[in-house]
Specification:
By secondary structure, this protein is mostly beta strands. The protein is 0% helix and 44% strand.
Length: 62
């Protein structure tokens, strides 16, 4: 992996969608659908990067 292309969490910009990040996942949990507990609505994580910037990330599953 090329370290020159890694973007730190504090430098992310919502206007772009083509970042490479390197993080450690501290916590991960899945949010189930309200009407079907077998399927997940989203996956949420607490992550930290090399500069110890901590962020909460939510991925919505389609």
């Amino acid at each position: 992996m090329e370290h020159g292309n890694i973007t730190y969490l504090k430098d992310l910009d919502l206007a772009r969608r083509d970042y490479t990040v390197k993080v450690r996942v501290l916590r991960l949990w899945k949010q189930p659908m309200y009407n079907n507990l077998e399927q997940f609505y989203s996956i949420e994580m607490i992550v930290v990067d090399e500069k110890v910037y901590i962020s909460h990330i939510k991925f919505t599953v389609f």
